[in-house]
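Message: I would value a second opinion on how I read folds in token form. Give me a protein, with the fold worked out from its sequence. Write it directly below this note and I will take it from there.
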Amino acid sequence: MIQKNGTLQAGNVSEPGKGLVFAMACACGIAVANIYYNQPMLGVIARSFPGELAPSLIPTATQFGYATGLLLLVPLGDLMERSRLIVSQFLVLALSLLFAAIASTGWALLGASLLIGFSASVTQQIIPAAASLASDNHRGSAVGSVMSGLLSGMLLSRILAGSIATNYGWRAMFWLAIPLVLIGATAMALVLPLNRPATSMKYGSLLRSLLQLWRSEPGLRRATFIQGLLFAVFSAFWTILALHLEQPPFHYGADVAGLFGIIGVVGVLAAPVAGRLADRRGPGQVVSTGAFATLLAWLVLAGWNSLAGLVFGVMLLDFGMQSAIVANPKVIYGLKPQARNRVNSLFTVGMFIGGSLGSGGAMLAWKVAGWQGVAISAIAVALTASLASLLLQHNDS
């Protein structure tokens, strides 16, 4: 429970208020947005550093930094006082954005982007913190609400960055991001209760325990496997979409491809609903529903070659992906409460690997067999995820 002195004892929880959950959702969205700001600004950035290779590597560096943060920073939430850790990461993120805003060369911006991704992994500190603040019966709802903030940040970041960079230049976006991040840090400092970590392990032992956790928890492996498959087909779509829209019968440019991100509102709306359903009916059923929705999405995308088919397919794909990504944490966070951050680290790294493989596989399939090759490959992966999810549903029941 949350004591009068504001300290959260490990293992005891009360229900977090709506204001606290809303603040965590906003902070999560503010943090995750920094990973995606650079994507719509790459052309503008490249023109600032003509002839340099570094700008083309900025998204990769940001994602690599994020993955490194997942492995090296997120487990610290089990070892350190979590609220102070979250605030500290926000402050490092603000400093990283300052380095990006004043970067005089493409390589300096590349280094700043690496640090931005590394510190932006604070998103995955906030989500298990929300899970720790809620009881078992309300954990899915709390996580779902915070996930809505994360999804909103992913959605709005590209739209905001594209508009700011077009009108004011790419540096303006990084300058604007600094006060936003500081607002997130301030909010977390004010509202998050102190917690007493459940482990006194040394950092090296903490990292070594990741392998033991992976080996000893089949539920974690299964949830990570399913989510990795779903994120693979999700990433495959977004990797190929712009290329597909350039082809007949569409002949659209990158601006139309960007507008498809607005359809991501379906995922934002689905997240809290999926969380509540996971609390009431169990996460297995929600994950299974999400997996089959993803499979149906790719069947639609493969067979309905029109703009309406793309829109409907994206809505199904986003609904399925986000339903599963909210319900699966309900499974993994209940496995070892004292190791929630380490469990989350393994889960998100596995999902990230799946997304990377999905993007690479989609590019290969596109070169070999075009859109139908991508769709057939994605259908096979989504079918595997759907069948695997039935095992999760069986265990949950």
